[in-house]
Structure formats: structure tokens, C-alpha cells
Amino acid sequence: MDAADRASATLRRRLRVLAAAMFAVTVLAASAVALGTLATGWDRSPSPATATTGASSEGFSVWERNRDGTPVRWDACSPIEFVVSTTSLPDGAEQDVEDAIETLRAATGLDLVVRGSTDERPSGTRLPYQPEHHGERWAPVLIAWAVPGADGVPLGDTDRGVAIPLAVGPAGERVYVSGQVVLNAERHDLRPGRGDRADSWGATVLHELIHVLGLGHVDDPDELMYVHPGEGPVELGTGDRAGLRAVGADGGCLDVPPPRPVQVAELPER
Ligand SMILES: [Zn+2]
User: Fold this and answer.
1) Which site from 69, 88, 161, 190 is most exposed, i.e. has the minimal number of CB atoms within 10 Å?
2) Which residues make up the environment of ion ligand 1, defined by Cβ < 5 Å?
3) How far apart are CA 239 and CA 57, in angstroms?
């Protein structure tokens, strides 16, 4: 077993722990008002053995499916709101976010909206309902640059970023209502825009936001959701577009639980 295999085995064990934790939360939530579950997408090079998991014949994968087989997704009949943390932003970050949102708005038909900036910082235990910060609504998706290891965010030293979409609702009928995208503020080798996937903040932000909309990785170097960070295209591929349609406006309205306090599973250690 080489180092990559050991790392992969460790990750699998941690994911099993997370799955067990989520099950426990499911049981607890039977008598609670709502359930929060987390999916994390951190972008590091996997071992070849894990690179093909989750891909569908349509060229995309999703984090999770509901009981009826449809992807867990956002409600297509409400705006999906984003805020950008103002701390540690690299040059061009706000433009990269705006460009990624515009690309995804066109590809999904969803009403994606950047509401502005915030002083809120990312956290591994960020709650999706924070009326004191964001009013009586599900908290907008927080986009932030942060130092690895800060506040329990599962961001490794060399990772470009991590996406943490958050779904609520009973098992088999979940819907995303909030989330975070945390980019690595110490990756000073990355540049604004979408010039080259190898050193592009723009493509990285776009990739992570696609995770927040519900898509996972694929083992296809022609897709932006290619499993190897730093490789692949800087724009959407055919499979990426099919996946974004699958979680997009064509799916129609969903019943969204009203905003209220939610218990969330803790994120696994990195
Ligand atoms: Zn990724």
C-alpha cells in the first residue's frame, strides 16, 4: 500500500464516520424540527482507485440522490443567494465570483444572486440558519478565502478549495438550502481569471460553486469537474452542462422547509 492508497483508505474511513454521524443525526432529527446534512468536496489529487467513483453515463455525478432517484438540488423557484467574505481576498476574486455565477446562471437557468459582502468567516460548524446575521431566511452561501486549519474548515495545506453544500429535510427528500465555498488563501500561485486550469482562481471558483449546486467529480479530463485539481478545461464541458441541467431550473419547484434552527453533522477531520 503506497502513500496515496493509505491516504485514500484514511479518507474512506473518515467518510464512513461521517455517514455514521449523519445517520445518528437522522435518528435525532426524528423528533426535531429539521435535519441538516453536509456533503464536502475538497480538491486534492485522489488515488487512481477512487478517481472513477460516482460518474454517470451522462458525464456527470451528483453528491446524493433522493428516494425518487432525482439529484438532491436547490429549489428552482427561489433565488439562490451568495455572499462574499471580505477577508483575504486575492486580486480579482470578486470578478471571478461574478463571472462564475453568471456562467452557472446561464447553464442552470437558476436565479443565482450575489447579495454582496459580509464580515462573516467560514467555519466547520457554520449554521444554515443565522437570523442575527442574515435575517429570517436560510443563510446565503458563504464564499470565503481562508487559511487551512482555520475554524474547523476541512481545507488541507495544498488544497485549492472545499465546497460544503448543506441540505435539509427528511431522508430521501432533501433540498439544498445553504452552504460554503472556502478557497485556500495561501495558494499564492493561483491567478485571477480562467487563463489556465493549472493556476486559475476563476476555474477553481467555478468548480467549487458547481459542487455547491450538487455535482461531484468525474474521471474525464474534458470536464471542469475532472477529479484532478489543476488539470482539465477552464470552461464547462458537455458532461458538466448535462449535470447542471439535471440540478437546474428544468427540475421545477421543491418544497423547502421554512428556515429554523437545524442540527448539523460535524465535518470529518482532514
Ligand atoms: Zn472538486
Assistant:
1) 69
2) 41, 43
3) 9
Q: Measure 219 CA to ligand 1 centroid, in angstroms.
A: 11
**Domain boundaries of the chain, sorted by first residue:** 3-264
Q: Is the pTM here over 0.70, yes or no?
A: yes
Q: Ligand 1: distance of its center to the CA of 169 in Å?
A: 25
Which residue, chain included where needed, has cell 448535462?
242
Instruction: Give the integer Cα–Cα distance in Å for 144 and 85.
Output: 5
DSSP annotation of 191 reads: B
- C-alpha cell, 63: 453528491
CA–centroid distance, 116 to ligand 1, in Å, is: 25
Query: Which residues share a beta bridge with 226?
Result: 218
Higher pLDDT, 77 or 260: 77
List the CATH code of the domain at 3-264.
3.40.390.10
In angstroms, the CA 107 to CA 140 distance is 20
Compute φ and ψ for 28, nearest 5 degrees: -60, -35
Q: Is 262 exposed, middle or buried (0-12, 13-18, 19+ CB in 10 A)?
A: buried
Query: What confidence score (pLDDT) does residue 214 get?
Result: 95
Ligand 1 center from residue 251 Cα (angstroms):
23
